[in-house]
Amino acid sequence: MQTHTFSLSIFLACCLLLCSSQSAFAKKMYRWVDEHGETIYSDQVPPEHSQYRRESLNEKGQVLEVTEQAKTKEQQALDERLNALKKAQEKIIAQQAAHDKVLLSTFRNLDDMQASLYAKMQSLDAQRNVAQGNLKRVENQLEMQQKKAAELERNGKKVPKNLLDEIKQTEAQIQAAYAEITKHIEKKNQVKADFEADIERFKFLTQENTDPSKASEKTVENKVIDEIGLYACKTDAICIKAWTSAHDFIKTYATTPIDTDTDKLIMGRAPANDSDLSLSVSKIEGDNKKQQLFLDIRCRESSLGAELCASQKVRDIRSAFKPFIDAALAK
Q1: Is the pTM of this model over 0.85?
Q2: Rounded to 5 degrees, what angle do the CA atoms 15, 18, 21 make?
Q3: CA 147 to each of CA 63, 138, 143, 177: distance values in angstroms, whole numbers, following the listed order
Q4: Which member of 51, 148, 310, 331 has the lowest number of beta carbons within 10 Å of its beta carbon?
Q5: What is the CATH number of domain 217-330?
Q6: What residues does 55 pair with on adjacent strands?
Q7: CA–CA separation, 151 vs 261, rounded Å?
């Protein structure tokens, strides 16, 4: 009887020990490495260690989830900048794709495009002729007013104030007329340049297709790569060399110095003047998981700055990015 009681006591003690052990292992455990390189296991993470990357483990020691290391404000700002560049890249590609779709649905062939360009040029010339007619009218008006004033002076009479005011108003109208004519000329040149670019684009989209509506969507991406300042790295090794060349490109074309230089972003100082061009290149992962170098160009936030960023000069810089990298890698 005593032996039975002793055995039962041992059995109950073992059960209690086993339950206690399972309860301990049932708690979530954490594993992390501190600044000294030591691996720490604990069921609680001290506040002073909360910034470290850590793993939560189950009772078998398997990783359940990972909490990445907390980022500094500088790292957060860098991530925000890279995300903004990624969105800018995606927006430009989407705009190009939409433009291509309209282009292919609007024109059947190159003859259609040439006819449309001719009609547009005729319309713009007609508008400029109207502006030039207005200029001639106010110039004649000024000539008459000046003759009247001169005649009064020859007769020893004072030129009335209202006549002097009219002369000033007419001179202002002449300046406005000249400005309008200049605007018409610039618009015509821009429309012609845009049309010619669209014609080249149409040729590019249809060069391998007898039916323009079936032009490969891949050509959209290829064209954008050439035009927006995008370099797609074929391998990681090539990307490392291209990244070095990107520094040289920024130094060649930017008017502001580099003030951010990491393994993912080279960024120039913000533009201070209307003529400043601030360039940055970011390393972004594409949809195919391969690295891309994306060129971004910033101008001063002003009317002249916006005009500069929309100019042919900036478009030429974007188009030069990929050939610049290719040439550097070929050396």
Answers
A1: no
A2: 150
A3: 96, 14, 6, 21
A4: 331
A5: 3.30.530
A6: 31, 66
A7: 72
